[in-house]
């Protein structure tokens, strides 16, 4: 959570003049047209897909479970960030921030809230799928909507505790006397990097990236091992396994593609800015990769709905199965009620039906 959405983090001229690496070329001027183009596309695509997703979750999808709880929170995280993109696009085009310090800080905070919130909510979905497939019976008490809401609340607290200090405690705007332009979250000094930002990078890389990455990989590997067991093979199960395998591959691809380039480069970027790495070549490579990696990371707003689609497909299959079972039980209940007119039997049958459906679980 340090230098958010636009790491122009170009070094202040006074500082670089006294720096031993002041002769290092900083060829990252291409980032502003790149940012304005990519962020405009992300705004349009991300807004449409996430609004459609939230409509499906709240209005069309009848089944409510812990998985949809995680996905709904992921949609909210994406939309909060998407709504700030027009301000960012304006800034990238004009290279001047006229909206005041508060909006800049809010924009910065929402950037990191979205990025690391997305990683954590995707991890929650992965862990939930692991519990449902690998430990379907023992996880029944863990996989409940109530506990999913508690987990989501904990994720929001964790993410906001990291993103809000980044946006509000640091001096996120600065003015250049040469062109009288106001920058949003750029031009941090070496002192700020060494005293605050390097510590923030360590925290977000560990809690927001390394741990979620390991959890996603471990859960996916164990799910795949479970699906390969002979005792899980069935004629019907082959189709389900194919869908689950496809869902896992899509999930891992989106997670790795969007977040690994940015977070790996972020470590080297911090080392360069704190002057731990003093190589001009390394600095040039890192500053060139950073805008590209950032644009890829921001695109997760557009890719997350793909996860919703593949995950929701298994939910829809569960709905179909429950509907078929429901019709079967309704027929049996009707036949039983026709043959037995006692009110006690009717009450017992309805209780049995409720128990059957309460014990059903979907992946």
UniProtKB/TrEMBL annotation:
Say where the protein is mainly found: membrane
What is the topology of this protein in the membrane according to its UniProt annotation?
Multi-pass membrane protein
- Its name, as the record gives it, is (Atlantic silverside) hypothetical protein
Q: Which residues form the G-protein coupled receptors family 1 profile domain?
A: 49-308
Please give the family membership noted in the entry.
Belongs to the G-protein coupled receptor 1 family.
Which GO molecular function annotations are given, in alphabetical order?
lysophosphatidic acid receptor activity
Any one annotated GO CC term: plasma membrane
This protein's UniProt keywords = Adaptive immunity, Disulfide bond, G-protein coupled receptor, Glycoprotein, Immunity, Membrane, Receptor, Transducer, Transmembrane, Transmembrane helix
Q: Where in the cell is it found?
A: Membrane
Task: Cite the InterPro entries for this sequence.
Answer: GPCR_Rhodpsn, GPCR_Rhodpsn_7TM
Membrane spanning stretches: 34-58, 70-91, 111-131, 151-170, 200-224, 244-269, 289-311
BP GO terms, sorted? adaptive immune response; phospholipase C-activating G protein-coupled receptor signaling pathway; positive regulation of Rho protein signal transduction
One Pfam entry for this protein is 7tm_1
